[in-house]
Amino acid sequence: MKKYILAALLVTFTIAGFSSITYTYDQRFLKSKNEDPNLLMFCAGAYNFTRSNSKYKTGALQLEFKGPSFFGKKTLKIKPFAALMGNFQGSLWLGAGVNFDISFSDWLVVTLGFGPGLFYKGGGKDLGYPLEMRSSAEIAYRFKSKSRFGVQFYHLSNASLASRNPGTEVLLLFYAIPI
Hints:
alpha+beta; Porin; 1 helix; 16% helix
């Protein structure tokens, strides 16, 4: 029971911390039309897709919020994110963390990210622990409207906090709209 409480507290404080950063910097952020806006991402794709002959290979849906930049200039920006992912077997991951947006041009953005989250197994694969870390990479086309279309890949792992650490991979197509 202690591990569930510890995991819940870690995720809660992470989300609360990023919420205060978003609130603090939101007014400054919205005044500049040259900045990237907050984004709401709609994602769909494959869960546990790298495992051959796995009964846990399934589809996944995700909703993700990307907040305002709290550090960085035009080429590299550090931004908070919060996401909820669910697969078609009933597994859920809810987490928050930090993204590093790297702009190679006005239209090409590569994003690397990391964040902890709470994992609920449902009828899907047991990842060994309720606290799962997400390590992600994405590449996106940025439209003039600041919306984005791209692909996101990430690995969920408990970072060996438990004796079992099978992990899983998720591959998603996404469309992100400015909000």
